[in-house]
Amino acid sequence: MKLKVLPPTLRKNNRYLAVDIKADSQINKDDLVTIIWDSCIRFQGELNTSNFNLWVMKFFEMDKCSDYYHYKAIIRCQRDYVDEVRSSLALATKFGRCWISITTLGLSGTIKASTRYI
To answer: Where are the alpha helices (H) located in 11-69, listed in sequence order?
Structure first.
């Protein structure tokens, strides 16, 4: 039996955040996922975070500066919770022994449009 695809009117509306990440040491996509989930759970709680529909769509490593490692990423979240996700990401400051800074560059409705911020 073939599964039916949901029509667009019944799907969740997603938004895509383009974020800028600066860290003292190297991180990878898995580390970024851990950082995002930990900061959202600490600030919003498990119940609210489960509604965010978070997903790291793309992860880019930029040129290394002299003082820090520079990364950019595109993160998917549900439309109704964009402000909560942005505030949680801004509060992420440390991962293990590594200091980290996450800044939102832009918000868009498609992945293609969010790449212009990167």
So the answer is: 29-44, 46-49
For the chain, which domains are there? 12-117 (3.30.70.3250)
Tell me what the mean pLDDT of segment 9-35 comes to: 93
Rg (CA), the chain: 15
Number of helical (H) and strand (E) elements in the chain, helices listed first:
4, 5
What is the average pLDDT score of the chain?
A: 92
Taking residues 74-93, what's their average pLDDT?
Answer: 94
Contact 75, 19 (CB under 8 A): yes
Residue 2 has a pLDDT of 85
Alpha carbons 4 and 108: distance in angstroms, whole number: 28
Q: Average pLDDT in the 83-108 region? A: 93
Task: Return the closest-CA partner of residue 17 out of 49, 51, 69, 57.
Answer: 57
